[in-house]
Amino acid sequence: MSRVRREELGYLEQTAEEFCESLKELGIPDYDVDVVRAMIGGRDFDRRLEEDPIGISAALSSIARRNGVDDVQVNRMFEDFLIETERLDPNDSFDLYVDVTDVDDDVKDVLERARDGDPDAQYEMGMRYRTGDGVFEDEHESVKWLGYAADAGNADAMYEMGVSFDLGIGVPIDEFIAEEWYRKAAEKGHEGARKILDGTE
């Protein structure tokens, strides 16, 4: 391997490690930082970044949210990392909000309200992406919008986040996180979540 190539790889590794350290400073625990380190330090990272950027963003958002960290901030930090390592043009954006031209006309109003922070609209967009209703079916985009709505206190979205982690829809299966979401939904009065926790459904 040439000296230039070794220096390039060393710089990429150093920059990736600096990104991981910045996650620790936000309060993300070591075991989750190790997941991120493996994701961005793997040999197939550039291929995955090209093929599934939404999946990477969704994974970062999931890690951030379950640790009480602002997922938008984490994704902006990730965008800076991509720019610094010359994987993203500074004039472009890693903003993964779908372009409004990619949805049916009757969904555009819902999408705009979701972008403005309306939890009910965010929940609706999450369910539309799960089923492909008026948009391209996309599990990662689904769980992102459901997560926003759930964080804002929407009980139906909390329940569906539980379903997402229970069944592995857009996120890895995690029974512990699923139960947490079911419990939050039940505390909000969601009957379906209560039945799951009681073992009656």
Write the layout of secondary structure elements.
Layout lengths: L2 H23 L4 H12 L3 H7 L1 H14 L4 H14 L20 H11 L3 H13 L7 H13 L3 H13 L7 H13 L3 H8 L3
Tell me what the structure shows:
With 201 residues, the chain is mostly helical. The protein folds into two domains: 3-84, no CATH class; 100-198, Serine Threonine Protein Phosphatase 5, Tetratricopeptide repeat (Alpha Horseshoe), CATH 1.25.40. It contains eleven helices and no strands. It has helices at residues 3-25, 30-41, 45-51, 53-66, 71-84, 105-115, 119-131, 139-151, 155-167, 175-187, 191-198. Helix 7 runs antiparallel to helix 8 (139-151), helix 9 runs antiparallel to helix 10 and helix 10 packs across helix 11.
